[in-house]
């Protein structure tokens, strides 16, 4: 199976359309969405409807912290911009979309792979895997050979050998990485809707579950239109600029 893994879509229609088209051109068999479907961007309803349509065809989907924020009245753990957009987002969604979010799981497993939004040791606490120490903690918290997670908005790949030593590297777009069965792995595909590594191109990954090969991709999209939509919705200008500059 060739699995397309998307995370941190953040209500960015233009980025999601580009990534879905890119994955279909490469004949992806299945799709997984690892949370934060909404937040920051201007098209939460369209993104949710699109993901819901994929779920109806068998795709997998998780809840992210911004998705959960839409359901909560207390969002003190969010920064002011994120909180403002989540409050705006809730007003844009209908009951069916909110119910879809409410029913989303925190994790799922496919063929010895664990999928979470933030980390494996406490998915519901939204703590970041942003270094080797946190990656090791996450890998040790599961028996899965490969963990996929998002939340960090930058693509990265960690590996751990039998002695517990952890290494990492920044993946190169369109270059296949064989995942040795002698190691444990933690992959972060990067954000579809709001990359933060200085490159505005959208991120996602394709995983060949038979060959155990993982390929990261950067997909250019119409950042100008996505940015202008953020401004037109009355959302913070800094969020529009972040799409243009990728950070």
TrEMBL record:
Phylogenetic lineage: Bacteria, Pseudomonadati, Pseudomonadota, Betaproteobacteria, Burkholderiales
Origin: domain of life: Bacteria
Protein name according to UniProt: Metallophosphoesterase family protein
Species whose genome carries this gene: Undibacterium seohonense
Domain Calcineurin-like phosphoesterase: 1-211
The family this protein is said to belong to: Belongs to the metallophosphoesterase superfamily. YfcE family.
A Pfam family: Metallophos_2
């Amino acid at each position: 199976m060739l699995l397309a893994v998307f995370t941190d879509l953040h209500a960015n229609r233009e980025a999601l359309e580009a990534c879905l088209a890119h994955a279909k051109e490469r004949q992806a068999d299945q799709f997984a969405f690892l949370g934060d479907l909404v937040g920051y961007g201007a098209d939460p309803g369209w993104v949710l409807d699109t993901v819901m349509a994929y779920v109806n065809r068998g795709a997998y989907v998780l809840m992210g912290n911004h998705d959960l924020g839409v359901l909560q009245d207390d969002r003190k753990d969010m920064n002011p911009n994120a909180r403002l957009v989540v409050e705006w987002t809730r007003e844009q969604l209908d009951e069916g979309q909110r119910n879809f979010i409410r029913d989303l799981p925190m994790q799922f497993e496919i063929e010895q792979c664990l999928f979470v939004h933030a980390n494996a040791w406490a998915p519901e606490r939204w703590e970041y895997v942003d270094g080797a120490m946190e990656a090791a903690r996450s890998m040790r918290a599961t028996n899965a050979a490969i963990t996929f997670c998002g939340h960090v908005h930058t693509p990265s790949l960690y590996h751990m050998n039998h002695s517990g030593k952890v290494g990492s590297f920044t993946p190169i777009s369109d270059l296949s990485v064989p995942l040795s069965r002698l190691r444990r792995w933690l992959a972060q595909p990067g954000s579809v809707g709001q990359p933060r590594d200085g490159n505005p191109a959208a991120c996602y990954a394709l995983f060949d579950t038979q060959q155990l090969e993982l390929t990261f991709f950067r997909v250019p999209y119409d950042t100008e239109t996505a940015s202008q939509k953020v401004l037109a919705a009355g959302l913070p200008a800094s969020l529009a600029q972040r799409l243009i500059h990728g950070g």
